[in-house]
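PROTOCOL LOG
Step 1. Enter all chains and additional molecules of the complex.
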Amino acid sequence: MATEINGWTAPAREVLRVTTSTRIAEVDAGATPGFDGDKQLGSALLEERGARLSALQELLYANGRIGDHRSVLLVLQGMDTAGKGGIVRHVIGHVDPQGVDHAAFGSPTEEELRHHYLWRIEKALPRGGQLGVFDRSHYEDVLVVRVHELVPADVWGARYQEIVDFEDRLVDTGTTVVKVLLAVSKEEQKRRLAQRLRRPDKYWKYDRRDLDERALWPDYEQAYQAVLDRTSTERAPWFVVPCDRKWYARLAVTELLIDALEGLELSWPPAHFDVEAERLRLERS
Ligand code: AMP
Ligand code: MG
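Step 2. Run joint prediction.
Step 3. Record the structure below.
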């Protein structure tokens, strides 16, 4: 029996986790899986859970300072306008920026193109004690690259297993990988693009190429489906987060991160000095 805690009827990690029957084209991007509340409750809860996330991140950071090499990596993927930047701002925004290793991946530079596609990814991995955030990621190398045939099919085709192996190594070496596909509907994308064309404060976000990508929606759906089918593993599962309602996506990603951090079972590092002696020293000073 599911218990209702502040609007959640089931844990986000359970309702959002990809299964073998997940079909990205059939996901209801306007839904709020596992959450019974409305926007008002969701937004209020986000503040509360954001504080919890922040406390857990501080624990991670504190342990990193004493040599714990573990880290958490949030991988954000999604079509243009899905709200990757909003997640960074409104979810990651709750934690101390010093503890965040953030990286955004756009079209590779000339130098990056001369290297293996994982080269720039490895360089951006979170350090021990850090919360890493990837706004786009190595998955672009089987998404945009596949859709636009930027490399031959046998090359991108080999990458799924390579990515699985790569993430397996990450997990082995202490990084908890949380992979989130933000699912926006095609209609909602149109509304968000229209807003970018209507509001002067949004013009800067408008990219003419977004409409070219939008025209390839079915190809992207197919490419995303392959990602879910071939790279959602026990150790590094994908979560599909409906994001037509931004407040829900933010709340859900917060829960996924809290869950990942709680899984590390961290406690405050013990004092590396004689507490009593230091208190005395301070008193006499
Ligand atoms: P944005 O996230 O709006 O800054 O856009 C970044 C752009 O870079 C998107 O159009 C991505 O598809 C593109 N991009 C990211 N990674 C790659 C890659 N490995 N190869 C080609 N294009 C990429
Ligand atoms: Mg863009």
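Step 4. Note key features.
The radius of gyration is 20 Å.
DSSP finds 13 helices and five strands in the chain.
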